[in-house]
Amino acid sequence: MKHRHISKRYWKDKTTSMAKSALIGAEIDDLINLSIGDPDLITHDLIIEGALRDAKLGHTKYTDYRGDPELRLEIIKFYKEEYDIDLEEDEVFVSSAASYGMSLVLQAILDDGDEVIVQRPCYTSYPYQVELARGVVVDFNTYEENGFQVDREYLESLITERTKAIIINTPSNPTGVCFDRHTLQDIADIAIKYDILILADDIYTEFSFQEPFYPIMKIPGMRERTVTVNSFSKNFMMTGWRIANIIAPPHILAAVIQINDHMMYSASSVSQRAAIHALRHRKEIIPDIVKEFKDRMFYAAERINKIPKISTIYPPQGAFYQFINIKETGLTSEEFSDKLLREAHILALPGNDFGDCGEGYIRIACTVGVDVLKEAFDRMGKLDFTK
Ligand code: PLP
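Above: inputs. Below: predicted complex with pyridoxal-5'-phosphate.
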């Protein structure tokens, strides 16, 4: 990408592992691809049919630039019914997916050189999104020894004059860990003490297997300093519709909307109609999805923990990823993923893709059925780590 016709800001290769692995995977016939967080299940018929009906009724145009008014009301209703949070209309914005939404938020809040503390290991795009918004990434490492929870003193030690925000993601990609109430309170206390924003990526909320999801904005003092990005991609198996919403204090949202006005104007009208049907029918749609993924996660964790030299957190807490500890094999994350690909034809992501503290792990996505997972773990169990 180094070319005089391209801005020097983009000379460094920032292609995600997800994009790279899609290319490698295409070359192996019996490949089991556990690298990508894009579920095998397709969107529920009630959503597809509802969206199609609405498209035929004329919902094919730009919508209100803040989002289809019906969808925004449906989101307000959702937050009231699920979390007993009363949102005002000017706190709700419909964005074209969470990735784009997070980028908009970072552009809206950061001055050049402002620091954003990023919980690591993390979704691979956050650091790039911060840099694209001319911010500086400050790694906040979390470790398995500590259940990948937050060490309050360590977090506090990272705060400087330039700290603008902390990005959190629970349930987490890639660790599958959910922050406990203690951790959420510690983060909230620090955010309040130093007047820092929390950017909460709430994309896997339904996949909370032990405790119901608890939004950090519900903690007293947090509503005015939390920006929540909540996508339909994973909870509703709607990755391709590219639809999400942002909940934020009105002054922040006004800046987000101003930027979006010139970047996208409005999210896809048909996808917004699909999101309305998703929310209206969620009680019929979500339980089956969650059951399927919970079964997969438990099956995977049990099988992984029976394979010598590798292990994972048990019982699974959330999301649909297993962050497998491979330290006992003596291989690095990259070496393990290479061996897995070459000898077992399984594509997984090396843990260091998600931050330096992810070294010694690989991530697999349970985005295939138990039958395919079974084959994957049968193959994995035959790997010889003595050579
Ligand atoms: N945030 C996290 C933590 C993710 O894991 C992903 C996708 O894997 C995204 C955001 C992207 O979400 P969207 O499809 O809404 O852009």
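The chain has a mean pLDDT of 95.
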